[in-house]
Amino acid sequence: MKQRVITAVVALLIFIPVLIAGGMWIDWLAAFLAAVGISEVFLMKKQILVSVDFTLAALATLTWTVPNSFFGFLPPNWSKWGVFYALVMLLLTWTVLSKNKTTFDDIGVYVLSSLYIGTGFHYLAAIRNSSPAHGLWRLLFAFVVVWTTDTAAYMVGRKIGKHKLWPVISPNKTWEGSIGAVIIAVIVTAIYVNLAPVGGNKTSLIIASFFLSIVGQMGDLVESAYKRFYGVKDSGKILPGHGGILDRFDSTLFVLPIVALIFGI
After folding, report:
1. What is the pLDDT of residue 8?
2. Mean pLDDT, consecutive 10-residue segments, the chain of 265 residues?
3. Which of 11, 20, 100, 136 is deepest in the core (most CB within 10 A)?
């Protein structure tokens, strides 16, 4: 417990100032988190990081993570889609050059992971930097939904949970905890949007929090599913007592792109 508390305090001391500062600071943070995230996928698959396939997968992930303005040097008819597609073609070519030591199935995992991780962390920075007046509060809106859902699901499930939600994937989660988490998340979000200058229609945001809470829980279950598939307890060990980056951002990676859509980012 002591280790978990120390890690949480240190992480927050770094994370919160970067959120407040925004700009290039959160762009760099998003890129760092995305790079660690894709490395955790490789480690769960028991693949080495000093390799051609990791280099290409990391570049593909960062292609989605970095701001769109980063690609201003490209010809007018090019975009990050073009860069990403070129990297996918190189990954597929590597299956031939490596004589199938890196397989087609491996490439499928890397490409899907780069989209999932890169897009999620892209919107971590994009939402924050979307508006000087509202950006920080909109990002915190996403975190309020996720953190409230996670905390309430644990507390309600522990107190009154009797019916397992998805025992094959996550044996500790219950239907009571899941439903209670959605209700509490909506209540807390309603309070938040009436106090914080998030912009947008408050009623719509409260309604959206209902669906975002469910989506966040699905993100948590998806991460539990692939950890079970790879036979690991945590996605990584970068946060002592808390696991890896994907462990901490599993729900957030699902929620952030939808929050960006809600605010037209």
Report:
1. 56
2. 54 80 92 95 92 95 92 81 93 93 93 95 95 92 94 89 81 88 95 92 94 95 91 80 83 95 92
3. 136
Reported residue count of the chain is 265
**How many other C-beta atoms lie within 10 A of the C-beta of residue 241?**
14
165 SS3 class:
strand
Provide CB contacts within 8 A for 242, sequence distance 6+: 4, 7, 8, 11, 248
- The tokens describing 200, both together, are 């947008």
Q: Is 145:213 a contact under the CB 8 Å cutoff?
A: yes
CA 191, CA 206: separation in Å to the nearest integer?
9
- Residue 238 and residue 33 in contact, taking contact as beta carbons nearer than 8 Å: no
pTM: 0.91
- Strands (E) in 101-238, as ranges, are 164-166, 170-174
166 forms beta bridges with: 170
